[in-house]
Amino acid sequence: MASKVVLITGANTGIGFQIVRALCSSDQAYDIIVGGRSFSKAQDAISSAEKEFPSSRSKLFPIQVDIEDDDSIQRAFDEVQSQFGKLDALVNNAGMYQTHRDRKSCSLTRTVGAQIDQQFAAGKLTERDMWNQSWNINTVGTQVMTSTFIPLLLQTPDPRLLFITSGTSTLAGTSNLALPVNRHPPKGWPKSGLSVSAYRSAKCGMNMLMREWHRILKEDGVKVWCISPGFLATGLGGNPEGLKKMGAGDPAVAGPFIRSVLEGHRDDDVGKVITKDGLQAW
After folding, report:
1. Predicted TM-score (pTM) of this structure
2. Strands 223-227 and 273-275, how do they pair?
């Protein structure tokens, strides 16, 4: 049986790399395309995985893809089309890093995930830039990546399309005041305290994006999900040790969970936001 071709964006670190590790440890054989903003970092991730899993049935291939750059996405598509001619699964995991220019110092800074909100709070981004960048990273770039690669997904009999979302994206979950992100700030203006409004709104937008692709591709037989891996201590989320003190779990748990989706164990939950233990409320 031919190996299934799986492309993972943002696969050189964090949850993306945990997916690579999980697929390398599978009994099934995969052609794993390790996507990274930097080709060298994708190669480094592959070297690390090959060293850890020397007997893996899977093969690893580096590719440079920046989901904020349409030309980069198109080059990645052309490369995958030329080398493989199909794509059995696309895992949209990238969407954390953002390079921006500090409006005061004019210096370039790389920010991750919800930290874009904190850059605004620190006076390093305008409010408009904070919201535009959050949506451009987490939603718009993912949309362009997906629409570009759909033709390759339609070349396989069991195509799968995954979007890595966030537990902060649930509308119903905003009433859970046990979570710091949902607590009411003190009376008065300006407000102080934890706020990731732009990030969680963009991830909520990703959930609708998933629903639209589920609708659009249903008759083509494409299985579509949003994956909510839980509160994990990844480097992309900030300080891993600090996150662990707040109750964050080991990011390694995400890999086997997402592999189980790719291997058919959550096929009854297509079109939903799924967690390791069930469904995430809308």
Report:
1. 0.88
2. parallel
